[in-house]
Amino acid sequence: MARKKKPDWYTLDNAGILYSALQKEEYSAVYRFSAVLTEGVDPAALQRAVDECVPRFPGFSVRIKKGAFWYYFEPNDAPGPFVQPDIANPCQPMRFQEDNGWLIRFYYYEKRISLEVFHALSDGAGALVFFRTVLAAYFREVGHDVPYSGPGLLDLREPPLKEEREDAYARYAGKKVLRGSMKGKAYQNKGTAEPFYTLNVTMGFLPLDKLRQVAKGRGVTVTEYLTAVLLKVLIDKQRRERPVREKPVALAIPINLRPWFPSATLRNFIITIRPVIDPSLGDYPFEDVLHYAHHFMRLEQDKARMRATFTGNVHFQTNKFLGVMPVFLKNPVMSLSYRLAGVRPYSGTYTNPGAFKVPHEMTPLIDHMEVILGQATMPRPHCASISYGNTMEITFAGTQRDAETERDFFRFLVKAGIPVKVTSNRKEER
């Protein structure tokens, strides 16, 4: 008797499990990358490019299903994803039953092509490989001589590799190592919430060479410099609010693990580090904040320390008690755990996926890149940045009404001698 074919499904990695547990009608962990081209977008050509690329990326060609104990992914053979005209409020919640179950979205507007991704599928590094490959296919569709292979591209003429869907966390997890994970409550940087669903997005564009010059003059990297600026802005903002006791100011900064733990995975493979300064201890001039950010970032990016961090997460996922808990009970438990360990200890998030590199044939076809980290679980802004050529783009996005954080951040850069051009989707200045 012939064996039945094993169902083509797979479990979520530990980051995906968390993002699916947090899913609500009013909240999804969604982020967006956009490429602003030098020519207007042809929607029909973009749809053909998406249709060509999706089969090469089975990890993005899935729907999410709720099992008795865990969510899982299964192949999505429904029509889609369909290219759509862009919308005023990006990164809206992904409802699992809508859009034929697709967990990715493509938008276009004039010269802009945008990809939105539910974070349970992939981190930014994986999504950028997918996006870069779609852009290359699009350029070929509209008549440009762009290669199938090159920096950050997957060759559409080759079959998908099993390694591209591996759970790299599970592969590299070591012995269970307990690192102190209980952190006190940080300054929350909350504002007045906008009506559902309004995501205020403010983007700053600045010359990368000038930013690098300023950072290098201080002996730090661009990421370290921008981390310190955001910490300093939040320290000063809290002080102006005159709290009874100042709380620590802390950031959640995702770190791509692939440089230390080689993997071809396009799924999530990141950890979060937490630079934190306690202003109740005294004054912190910017020089001191910068000194701290520089050394903290380098200390935390230590292979053994990083392995210990995600090993604990993997062991949590394989906990026997948690494994037999029904998903309808598990989700509230994980949501509470996230509020205590993933929200309360932080004042905000800053992520920098780095430079967007493409084959040289694509270079003149893209003007600049943009990134938006979708809404937080409370009305406060997330910060994200990406560079292309000599343009660094920095985005603040959140459901809070006020714009004080982003205004102070960009003013700081201008005072440091870095010119910034600011755009926003806000209907009026507040």
Strand count, sense and barrel status of the largest sheet are: 8 strands, mixed
CATH superfamily of the largest domain: Nonribosomal peptide synthetase, condensation domain
Q: In the CATH hierarchy, what is the architecture of the largest domain at level 2?
A: 2-Layer Sandwich
| Rg calculated over all Cα atoms | 21 Å
Count of structural domains:
2
Beta-strand portion reads: 15-25%
What's the helix count?
A: 11
Q: What is the β-strand count? A: 16
What fold name stands as the CATH topology of the largest domain? Answer: Chloramphenicol Acetyltransferase
The low-confidence runs, each spanning 5 or more residues with pLDDT under 50, are: 1-6
Distance from first to last alpha carbon? 71 Å
User: Which CATH first-tier class of the largest domain would you pick?
Assistant: Alpha Beta
Descriptive report:
Residues 1-6 have low confidence and may be disordered. Helix 2 packs across helix 3, helix 6 packs across helix 7 (286-300) and helix 6 (222-240) packs across helix 11. Helices cover 31% and strands 21% of the residues. It is an alpha+beta fold and 430 residues long. It folds into 2 domains: 10-155, 2-Layer Sandwich (Chloramphenicol Acetyltransferase); 200-353 and 371-424, Nonribosomal peptide synthetase, condensation domain (Chloramphenicol Acetyltransferase, 2-Layer Sandwich), CATH 3.30.559.30. It is globular, with a radius of gyration of 21 Å. The protein is built from 11 helices and 16 strands. A hairpin with a 4-residue loop joins strand 3 and strand 4. The strands form 3 sheets. Strands 8, 9, 10, 11, 12, 14, 15 and 16 form an 8-stranded mixed sheet that branches. A 5-stranded mixed sheet has the order 5-6-7-2-13, covered by helices on one side. A 3-stranded antiparallel sheet has the order 1-4-3, with no helix packed on it.
